[in-house]
């Protein structure tokens, strides 16, 4: 009934076209349209912060993070926290979300300055998707937002198996980069200390003998991976 | 009625003491006690990941982040996204949460290896608070978790006004650190370029003439703050 009333109201609105597009995207009829209009307004169109989607993006990013966290927590009941964290960062990373947003057709709905060529290379559609999640939350509450993310975003657009299989062996990644660029790469144990009842190892990544980064962990393998991951970031090596 | 039934059941349980303590802490009677027992079990007591609180901490951290995001979004309707992000990081940072957890008395409930002296200096109680939030979410759902965080955690224990007034002027922080340590600090404009229709500035932080970090922004002030913040992190200067 509520859905019906909302539809009737929107039928007479000048935003009929937008409502139809949103219904298709969201799987329900929006109640409070201004939330969604705000979510679709990029700063390049309106600088005024009350009228663009940056605040909603902040909210939606957090809501998305918690729903993905719960999804992974339940999907992988035997995986450690580090695995869940890594998988979440792969799902919510800018590149993934921007790609999802494009496939959802958000680029046709987002209002932005189309003369600004830099924008098409940035992640404005993924950011708008986060803002849209913020709008869904404000308009419909947590439970509906959860349903929207699981059914309309993750299920059709996120290839979990592919994300699982991406190479997480940071040491190998760093090694192949070093070989390609003719650096001598070594991992040196810099420290072994007792913290409470446990040993903690610190491993350093050395490139041509220079210390690039260090990583700590309860065993050498873990510490080496941490150090390699930090080094990849510092050196801006792409996966 | 459900609360009454839960109480009756717990009255005959060997965990009566724990239930009473949790009721006091949470403001309601837990339904499924094992979630809470798991949340209170530190890895130093049980390594097995299905039996310690690290996975729940991952979940609770995300739920807390989203509830704090919504709280700030509504509390500061006119502040930009950057302000909300900064305020959230102050609320959920390890030191703040650990302090809150101690004042809530979680140190009396968490099971950990008390012979491990390193632990008392770490943030295990703040982490257990996050895990407890994960347990509340699994046991009671989002709405109750939201209420718990707002009424039992933020309202009594988080001094928002104090967190607001903490110095966010990273340039000033860096300057006073440099003076104390007799470094010559300068901020140099390294680049001004047009991205789309907007100018983007890149500012470098120089310490005794060496480039430490760079920051980019739509004006020099913003770019300088970004650069200073990154330099403070790199140099591990404490606020």
Explain what this protein looks like in three dimensions.
The structure is a homodimer of 239-residue chains. The first copy, chain A, is α+β, with helices and mostly antiparallel strands and 239 residues long. Chain A has two domains: 2-165, Ribonuclease III domain (Ribonuclease iii, N-terminal Endonuclease Domain, Chain A, Orthogonal Bundle); 170-234, Double Stranded RNA Binding Domain, CATH 3.30.160. Helix content of chain A is 60%, strand content 12%. Chain A contains twelve helices and three strands; from the N terminus they run H-H-H-H-H-H-H-H-H-H-H-E-E-E-H. Chain A has helices at residues 2-11, 16-26, 33-39, 54-75, 81-92, 94-104, 117-121, 124-140, 142-157, 160-165, 170-180, 220-234, and strands at residues 185-195, 198-207, 210-217. Chain A has a three-stranded antiparallel β-sheet with strand order 1-2-3. In chain A, strand 1 (185-195) and strand 2 form a beta hairpin. In chain A, helix 4 packs across helix 5 (81-92). The longest helix of chain A is centred in the N-terminal third of the chain and has 22 residues, at 54-75. The radius of gyration of chain A is 23 Å and the shape is elongated. Chains A and B meet through helix 4, helix 5 and helix 7 of A and helix 4, helix 5 and helix 7 of B.
């Amino acid at each position: 009934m509520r859905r019906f009333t909302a539809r009737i109201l929107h039928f007479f609105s000048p935003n009929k076209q937008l409502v139809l597009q949103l219904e298709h995207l969201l799987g329900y009829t929006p109640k409070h349209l201004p939330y969604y209009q705000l979510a679709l307004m990029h700063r390049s169109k309106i600088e005024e912060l009350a009228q663009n989607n940056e605040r909603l993006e902040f909210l939606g990013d957090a809501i998305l993070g918690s729903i993905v966290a719960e999804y992974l927590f339940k999907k992988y009941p035997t995986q450690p926290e580090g695995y869940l964290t890594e998988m979440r960062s792969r799902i919510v990373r800018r590149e993934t979300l921007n790609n999802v947003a494009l496939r959802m057709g958000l680029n046709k709905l987002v209002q932005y300055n189309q003369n600004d060529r830099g924008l098409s290379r940035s992640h404005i559609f993924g950011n708008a998707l986060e803002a849209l999640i913020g709008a869904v939350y404000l308009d419909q509450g947590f439970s509906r937002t959860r349903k929207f993310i699981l059914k309309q975003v993750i299920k059709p657009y996120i290839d979990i198996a592919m994300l699982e299989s991406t190479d997480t062996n940071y040491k190998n990644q760093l090694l192949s980069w070093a070989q390609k660029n003719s650096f001598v790469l070594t991992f040196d144990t810099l420290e072994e200390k007792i913290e409470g009842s446990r040993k903690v190892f610190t491993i350093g990544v050395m490139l041509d003998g220079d210390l690039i980064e260090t990583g700590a962990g309860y065993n050498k393998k873990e510490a080496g991976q941490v150090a390699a991951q930090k080094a990849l970031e510092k050196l801006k090596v792409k996966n």
